[in-house]
Design goal:
Rossmann fold; 10-stranded mixed β-sheet; binds NADP nicotinamide-adenine-dinucleotide phosphate; alpha/beta; globular; about 25% strand
């Protein structure tokens, strides 16, 4: 299984640090040449591989860590997305519901990546918290996952465990997933809730 993080801003860095802590290789890409952020990637860890967007989208699992408005640009980087799993970390806060055709933002994002299985996740914590070692207070920090594909949710759940988090599956995107969706001026009720699993 190969992994990539698309977007290497605050959330991209936090995710990269989680991969580095766990010793799992992950590519990172932005719109820029890889050389421009290679030193930054190296400072996080040896398993963080700076690359181009065109190379990064060849991974099996892609974390979408760009602003919501940039997801269309990322979607143009591959002709189709069959067989890939996209982890949608974007928050569409400020995007009017009518611009999303009234859908949950992740369903809207999913449409832009035909053939991909989409899992909403890792998006409910501010970057400074996501950045921290998830082993805290005698337990593991919770990440919420939601997907209309049970297999993809299980796959990302297993990855979240490998990264040290305690995943909680909320169900489908338009069901439990709404608890971690942002759109318009509304945040889902679980967004910003920093929970620790003591199991
Ligand atoms: N910050 C938070 O606390 C937080 C918490 C939860 C969720 N989120 C969500 O996570 C996402 C990322 O947030 P952030 O705070 O990390 O944003 P950010 O710091 O602005 O980083 C965005 C990254 O995306 C890259 N990028 C932009 N357009 C791109 C494209 N077409 N292809 C590839 N890379 C592209 C940017 O690099 P270049 O422009 O240099 O190419 C930059 O590295 C957002 O959707 C946000 O809502 C953020």
């Amino acid at each position: 299984m190969t992994y990539a993080i698309i977007g290497f801003g605050k959330i991209g860095h936090a995710l990269a640090r989680a991969f580095a802590r766990s010793g799992i290789e992950v590519s990172v890409a932005t719109t820029r040449e890889a050389e421009s952020f290679a030193a930054d990637a190296a400072a996080i860890g040896l398993t963080i591989v700076p690359t181009t967007l065109a190379e990064a989208v060849k991974a099996d699992v892609l974390f979408l860590a760009v602003r919501f408005e940039s997801h269309w640009e990322v979607a143009k980087a591959a002709p189709d997305w069959k067989g890939k799993t996209i982890v949608d970390v974007t928050n569409a806060y400020g995007v009017p519901p009518e611009e999303l055709d009234g859908k949950p933002s992740s369903m809207f994002v999913e449409q832009s990546f035909p053939g991909a299985k989409l899992v909403k996740g890792f998006n409910h914590l501010v970057a400074d918290i996501l950045d921290q070692d998830p082993t805290v207070h005698g337990g593991r920090r919770v990440v919420f996952l939601a997907s209309d594909d049970d297999g993809a949710a299980a796959e990302i759940g297993a990855l979240a465990e490998s990264l040290g988090f305690a995943p909680i599956n909320l169900g489908g995107l338009s069901e439990g997933g709404l608890l971690v969706q942002a759109r318009g001026r509304a945040w889902g009720r679980l967004i910003f809730k920093d929970l620790i699993s003591l199991e």
